[in-house]
Every structure is written in structure tokens, then in C-alpha cells.
Amino acid sequence: MRVTHLSLTDFRNYAQVEVPFAPGPNLLVGRNGQGKTNLVEALGFLSTLSSHRVSNTSAMIRAGQDAGIIRARLEYNGREILAEVQINRTGLNRAQVNRSVIKTRELTRYFSSVLFAPEDLALVRGDPSGRRRFLDQLLVLRTPRLAGVLADYDRVLRQRNTLLKSARASGLRTTQLGTLEIWDDRLVALGSEIIDERAELVRLLAEPLGAAYQAVAGENHGPALLPLLSILGADEDAAIEAGGSGEAVPSGSVSTGSVSTGSVSTGSTTGESFRTALAELRRKELDRGMTLVGPHRDDVIFMLNSLPAKGYASHGESWSFALALKLASAELLRRDSATGDPVLILDDVFAELDLSRRRRLAAAVTGFEQVLITAAVLEDVPEELTAHTIHINAGSVVDG
């Protein structure tokens, strides 16, 4: 898969811009603040319906405008597609494919990309929410139908939390108890599927993650992913409070053997463990007015040399881990996809790497069908990645 043309209207600092892209490496170069990252952010949003920079989509609309438009021509297996999304400051966003209106969440079926940016260091050092979001975005890219499962789970979670808050204020009545049990059934059904899908994804990432880390870092530090499940007792609040203190991995982890089958380590099914956890925490949930177990409270610990990377890994090791995680994701997508390689996007990466790591990264990405790179300094990027260079200045394409 590759992008042949990107068109933006009222997106970030662009009133209107047209950018052609070539197969293989494409380098967007220009001083900081000129709009390079805005271009790749737009493509990332088209693929995942989220930004790697902001959580509020209205921040991507040009100041003073009511909407911004991202339009990209895509090509794979000899087929051409025009994918568009209109980001509205108020109201729902709108999407089209080949000028036909579709549900916005269906866009992920048509465009696959993997973006790495300096913000991704938070995957290693940040809170669990970022790691959950990473796994779920990759799940949807691999299996688009899971977008619906995740959306339904969020809806059920909100409804259940509303009921718990109401019960906390008024005392749990018999009618509310029956309604809560109905929401429990939906929560367990949807949540168990998400937990099992994430476990399988973690298993599949293991091999390409090890290869990617060694390719980037030049050393084998045994990178691994260790899921922590709230239904087995992992406490998100305690994990966040522990932060980078170097404390031992908390309870609720899944053994390597159980991850490979997507089942929980107790030997029971995921759904049974989920129901047991809900029953045990019923009183605590009513006291707090919120759902305390489920995939929305899970985490995955990144391990290096058998220790949590958060709290033990150096800056360089953390950077290499985050980059390797994205390269492993791209490798997994290219193995699974019938549409070819995902578009690999590297936003301001090479400035953070020494010369040897730059060369190793260049060697690792040159095999992808299309790679988009941003850099402030042309000399930071290995020569083999500069064949198609696009200069960006003040929201305009200077030449290409």
C-alpha cells in the first residue's frame, strides 16, 4: 500500500496544500514549525482516527475555520482509492471513500499505516492508557471489525458506570441490581473478547519485536511484553502510583504459556475470571461508583533484560524499545495484510539517533513499500532515504 497524493484543506497551518508522494522513501524536510509533522499527522489520523499529538480533534482544524478536510489517494494491488475525512469543530466527523459516504470508523479498513514519533517514548514511560490505546489501534488495523467491539464496550462501560454512580447516591435497589446484572453480561462478553484479542496480539508481537530491537539497537536485551490483567488482580491505580520507582511487577500478570493461548493463568476462561472479579469487587465498585475491572483497567509491561523498562531502561534503551515496537507492528501488519505493506511513517526520528543507529534504522525500513520521513536537517537522514525529498516552508511545498 502507498499514498500517491495528499490534499489538505484548513488542516493545522495549511489553508490548502497538495503533496505528491513516490514509492519507497519520501523525506519531508524543513525547519521546525513549518508544517512537516502536520502532513504525517493527517495521514496517521486517516489510518487510526486519532492524532499522535492531541486528543481533541478540533485542535487539528485551522484557526477560524469550522472544519478541516484530509483527502488522500491510495494505491494497492493495482487498485486506486480516494479516502476523505472531514473533521468538524462541532458535530460528528464525516468520511467518504470514492465519494461514497461511509461510517467514519470504517476508514481504517482502507488505509493502514504505522507512525513513530518522539511522543511514543510515553509508551514506555507513560501511563497504562497509552499502552492500551497502542494495542487497540493495532488490533483494529489488523481486524477492522474490532472497532465495533471496542466502541460497544466503551458504551456499555459508560452505562454501567452511570448506574453505579446512581446506586451509590441512592442505595442499590432491586430493580437497579437486575439492570446491573444485565450490564455485567454485556461487559463480560465484550471485555473478554478484547482481553483475548490483546493477549493474542502480544503473543504475535514477541518475535518481530525481538528482531526489530536488535536491528535498531545492535544488541539483544531480551525485549518482551508482559500483560497485566485487572480481572486477575492487577491494580491500575497502584501501578500508576508506583510509576518509575523500579518496584516489582505487580500481581495480575499473565504467564508466557497462558498468553500464547489467549487464556488467563488460572486455567479458567477469561469470561469466568471476569465474572468472579466483578462479584468480588461489587461492594467496592458501588462505593466508588465506577467499574474497577476489565480491559479498560489493564496494562502491559515492557521488559528489557528481565526488568521493567519503565524505571530501569536508559533513555536510549527506552527510545529503541518504542521504535522497535512500532517496527514490529509494521512487520506484523505486512505479514497479515492482503493490501501490501502498511505505510511506515517516521516523524523526527533521526535527530535522536547516533550515526550507527541511523544506519541500522535505514537498513531496517528500506524494504517497506513506502516510508514517509520528516526531518529538520537533511544531513540527519541517511542518503539512501533522501531520493525523493520534499521541502516544506511556512505551510507550503517549496519543491519536491
Lay out the secondary structure.
Blueprint: E1 2-11, E2 14-20, E3 24-29, H1 36-48, E4 67-76, E5 79-88, E6 94-97, E7 100-102, E8 113-116, H2 122-125, H3 128-142, H4 146-170, H5 174-217, E9 224-228, H6 236-242, H7 256-261, H8 270-280, H9 282-288, E10 299-304, E11 307-308, H10 309-312, H11 315-336, E12 343-347, H12 355-365, E13 370-375, E14 389-393, E15 396-399
Parallel strand pairs: 3-13, 3-14, 8-12, 12-13
Antiparallel strand pairs: 1-2, 1-4, 4-5, 5-6, 6-7, 9-10, 10-11, 14-15
Describe this structure in words.
The structure is a single chain. Strand 4 and strand 5 (79-88) form a beta hairpin. The chain has helices at 36-48, 122-125, 128-142, 146-170, 174-217, 236-242, 256-261, 270-280, 282-288, 309-312, 315-336, 355-365; strands at 2-11, 14-20, 24-29, 67-76, 79-88, 94-97, 100-102, 113-116, 224-228, 299-304, 307-308, 343-347, 370-375, 389-393, 396-399. It has 12 helices and 15 strands. Residues 244-251 and 253-263 have low confidence and may be disordered. The protein is 42% helix and 22% strand. The longest helix has 44 residues, at 174-217. Helix 3 (128-142) packs across helix 5 (174-217) and helix 5 crosses helix 11. The chain folds into 2 domains: 2-112 and 337-399, 3-Layer(aba) Sandwich (Rossmann fold); 130-311, RecF/RecN/SMC, N-terminal domain (Glutathione S-transferase Yfyf (Class Pi), Chain A, domain 2, Up-down Bundle), CATH 1.20.1050.90. The protein is globular, with a radius of gyration of 22 Å. It is an alpha/beta fold and 400 residues long.
